[in-house]
Amino acid sequence: MIKRISKSGILVGLAILLVLGTALLSGCAKEASAPSGKISVVSDYPSLTPLVDFVGEEDLSVLNLVGFKAADRAMKELGFERGDPDILALTDAGYIAQIGEYTSEGALDGVIMTAATSQGKASLINVHKPYNSPLWFAFFDKKSKNCVYLEAKSDVLKTYLDREKTGRDAALTAFMKLKDGEIFSPIAKENIDAAKLLNNPEPWQEKMVARVFGGNEFSLITLCNLWAMGLPNDFMKVAELHDHICPGLTSGYMITKYIKENFPSANPRNEYTVIAIPPWCKDDAMIQIFETNVGHKAMYVKHLTKEQQKALSGEAKKVANIFINKATNKGIVVGFDWPKVYEVAEMPDEAIAKFRDFTTYWWWWGRLKEDIALMGYLDKPEDFVCTIKEFDTTPEQIEKLTTAGVNPLVELGIMP
Q1: What is the C-alpha separation between 63 and 157, in angstroms, rounded?
Q2: Residues 114, 221: one domain?
Q3: Which domain holds residue 308?
Q4: Is 98 exposed, middle or buried, given 0-12, 13-18 or 19+ CB atoms closer than 10 A?
Q5: Helices 233-242/282-290 angle, 10° precision
Q6: pLDDT tens, position by position, 92-133
Q7: How many domains does the chain have?
Q8: Pairing relationship of beta strands 272-276 and 98-99 according to DSSP bridges
Q9: In what order do the strands lie in the sheet with 146-152?
Q10: Structure pTM?
Q11: Do residues 77 and 150 share a domain?
Q12: Residues 127 and 271 occupy one common structural domain
């Protein structure tokens, strides 16, 4: 027997179905945007999606977000899209800047996943700074030569990292609501085109003194401008350790290329003994490329007094390093030609005279000018590096040459 359903009954049934359907859809939406019933930051900030997909929403941290915030601000300031090949990102995040007891490597993920810069693409330089250096970020546009610098406020970051321990979701949400000026200081945008700086150095000198990039001005103008010229990847890794590029570092890079050609080793870390005499920035290149670290007992540093330097004559005046191969008991003394650098860089006499006068612009002007000139000679190290002496040796003599109080140049007959 078929029963008739009243019109009012149909309406009530439809209403019930509507309520149940709405509740079901709402529950599905919440589940999709926030696993385990937690509030999703991504739902309010869709641009976080690449970062959250990479680290996982459950592992998202304030440190990830500070990297995101820095990259997001730079993208707006410089007007670039994610993955732009003309953009270079630089930061000391994780290498090895800390915020109190917190390490900062998580901020790297924020930069990489937001701006899509990476070391694999040669568009990210992870600059070495000491543990108590401020956490900072910089973004450079190769076309415009504009650079945006952001330095995180350590006290603000620490506050939110502490809050994250007891209420992560609330801390993340609150941090995302902060304005850029509440997280970073300074925030600066400057044009650092090398040609512009070299042709008109006085205005930039004022900015150097004012520390517009938090004291990282020389690092950024050299790293960015040489990257724009096509900095090789292995040189980039050398520069990461040294924190900037100067002609002293370039001389070391050229010496390593000369040694690879003229005094090669199948296992440089275990076979080379390097004596830096005298030491200068060059030796960071040896450490990075040959892994001849002091800790591996593969590098020894010996200074020369002014009197000892005056005692050098001829090619010996160029002395830079002694390389010994313990596997073959053979050695080579190499030198570097600084007058030739001054010549190719067309250095004025005043720049040479005031090269170490850090109260004027000459100190950075001269180094930047030489940096740029030497970029054209990276594949021609023999133009500047020379062999002063080749010699045979023994394990006993190697030990003597590296011992404190022994002048290896005297032992090898290079100086009286």
Answers
A1: 8
A2: yes
A3: 246-411
A4: middle
A5: 120
A6: 999 999 999 999 999 999 999 999 999 999 999 999 999 999
A7: 2
A8: unpaired
A9: 124-126, 87-91, 136-141, 146-152, 184-191
A10: 0.90
A11: yes
A12: no
